[in-house]
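Problem: given the chain below (149 residues), write out its structure.
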Amino acid sequence: MRYLMLVLSTPDAPQDPEGVPAIEDWVRDTYGAGRAVLGDRLRPPADAVGVQVRAGEVIVTDGPFSETKEVVAGFDVLDAPDLDEAIRIAAAHPMAHTGAIELRPFWPLGLEETPTAARATRDRRRRRRHRRVPRRVGPRAGCRRTRHG
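Solution.
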């Protein structure tokens, strides 16, 4: 089963705690064993952009958005046989010692199970590769841009 492991930075993180494993060791052990398939750090909330469509209008809002104290600092997609193994992997991550980890099980749509859906996905990817779409954001592109926070 796959789990999204959200790596959270918290304001109440202990200063220089003892026994925190090195991130390089966690990455080597977890990815080397095939227990993680994708992961990366995320830019700070100030670099985030929100996108909504309301009454056919695209509204783009500059971040940060939430008033929470925890910040999603990164993520990993875990491939674990069960929740117990996912918890063991998460507990070994350095941010479990200095921040927080949230595990969310994937909830597959089941679309990949049908040959028709697989063919449609493949065709969409091909079309995307061969098509160039301008990336304009703003009044000319039918967008309204707002700043939050």
